[in-house]
Each structure stands twice: as C-alpha cells, then as structure tokens.
Amino acid sequence: MHAVHIHAVLVAAALVVPSASFAWGDEGHQVVASLAYKRLTPKARKAVDALLAKDADKLTAPDFTSRATWADKYRDADRNTTQVHYRATRKWHFVDIELDGGTLDDACDGRKPLPDGVAASQGPANACVVDKLVQFRKELTSPDTSVAEKTLALKFVLHLVGDLHQPLHAANHQDSGGNGVAVEIAPSNRHSNLHAYWDTDLVKKLGTTVPVAAASVAKLITPANAANWSAGGIDDWAAESNADAKKVAYNFSGEKTFVDDHDGEGEVLDATYEARALPVARRALAKASVRLANLLNDAFK
Ligand SMILES: [Zn+2]
Question: pLDDT digit string (tens) for 249-295?
Fold first, then answer.
C-alpha cells in the first residue's frame, strides 16, 4: 500500500470514486473462498468446479479461490482506459447505507427489480451489492440460465458475498465508505485511509499468507456459530455489516488525531482501535465463508 495524503484521497474521491471503490484486498477474498470451498457439498463442489473448468478468462487463475478476486480485476481492467466495465459494475461491490439514518432503499437506488429478459451480468449500473447478490443467486438456481451467464454469476457471487461483509462496504459517512478518512497506523506512522485499513491491513494482521489467515479465521467457525450465521438473509448481512461499521470501524473514541503534510486532519489508529477492530474483521470473514458456502450448496443442491 502507498501512503495516501488526505488531499490525494479527497481529490480522487471527488473526481473518480464518489463511493467506496476498493474491496477486501485479494487476501481477504481468498480467505473467504478457501474456507467456503471446504464447506461445499460434493454435489455443489462438482458443479462449481465444472463451471470454472470451462472458463477461459485470464484475469485471474481459474481455481475457485483465485476466482474470488475476479470481479475486482474485471472492474479495474479498463478503469484507466474506456471505463466500460468499470462504470457498469463499480457500484455492485458495496451498499452505501449512510450511518446517520440511511436505509437500504436509498442505498440501493430504490431496489428496482432486474428488467425482464436482462441478464444480471448486464444489469443496471446503479444496483447495490445486496440486489446483485439476489439476482446472481437466482441465475445460479435457474435451469434457464446459460452456462456463460451462470459462470459470470458464480464469479460475481464468489466475490460479492465477501465484499458485503467488509463493514465499510455497507456504510457511508459522506466519505466514500471511509476512503476519505485519512489514518495513521500506529506505531508505524504509516498513512493510509480507513477503508484500505479494513480491506488490507487488518487481514494481514490475521496472517501474512492466505492459509495462515484462513487458519486464524477457521477457529471461529464452530458448529454453533455456523448455525447462527446461517439464519437470516442477504438484507440482514448488510444490516450486520453496517452495525459493525457504526460500532467499531467509525468508533475513534480514545484515539488521537494527526495533521498531515497538507493540514488535513486524520485519525491515528492505535492498539486500542486494533483490539476492537481485529475480532470484528475475523468474524466478518468467517461469516462470509459460511454464507458463501450455504448459498452455493443451496443453488446446486
Ligand atoms: Zn469488490
């Protein structure tokens, strides 16, 4: 990660990324997918492996865990050129529920249904992650979906379940989902932004490689927790992530602030903040993996 000055963040937020634009880094998505894969039924595993085996797309490696990062690569592939895929799918990665009284309806452009005959992969650019997950799940379940569309649906679902569990993908405080909040990560004095800290830094603290971080997350997946997390639907996942953002990600009480080179003010994230945040990030990754597996087991039963 590069140090990001607050001016650079604000300029970028104003010109290019009016909303949360990143995701759990690749590692977070790979942790979710690798744990979910172990929970697939033999039937579901066979079905997803068969779809992925026929997919020649080169944006990521073809295996289940690598494909969990595909939707970010697809979005970013033309981000600095034509922006066709970027504009069409950028908003599908988050649901910007305002912390102060925001609703899912507002954050999801009125929750318009997908027009008849339109494939979810071609669906409206203004749809939120919650509605895209509902649409792609339906395609995975339906015998009428073409193999090509089912493969796209699978690759989006693999990624978007993870995104919805990143608290700052389900919350906004008029700051592009925390992208506009400059942070200094103590004790390193490294500067970043709040969204990136949750995407990447916290996951790295769970383990510097995917298997190590996954092993740390896996300890939380007890039968009792898995049963709890299996209740409720996709709207509830958004509400839980938003509550975590409010209670933990935006809870700077006891923290210091700092002034950066451009006289912007940011939050110092110290050991107290990390002690609150890390268990929430670990639990979010664990929940995402259980729910991704449930969704696929259900779609391919
Ligand atoms: Zn994403």
Answer: 999 987 788 887 777 889 999 999 999 999 999 999 999 999 999 99
- Record the pTM: 0.91
The secondary structure element, H or E, covering residue 259 is: strand 257-259
Distance 72 CA to ligand 1 centre (A): 5
Burial of 55 (0-12, 13-18, 19+ CB in 10 A): middle
Tell me the residue type at 190: R
CATH of the domain at 113: 1.10.575.10
Place of tokens 């298997």: 211
Q: If you measure from the C-alpha of residue 261 to the centroid of ligand 1, how many angstroms do you get, rounded to a whole number?
A: 30
CA nearest 165: which of 272, 88, 242, 65?
A: 242
**Domain extent for 155:** 1-301
In the reported structure, the alpha carbon of residue 37 is separated from the centroid of ligand 1 by a whole-number distance in angstroms of 19
CA of 65 to the centre of ligand 1 (A): 14
Average pLDDT on 75-89 reads 96
- Residue 81's Cβ-count burial label (10 Å; 0-12, 13-18, 19+) is exposed
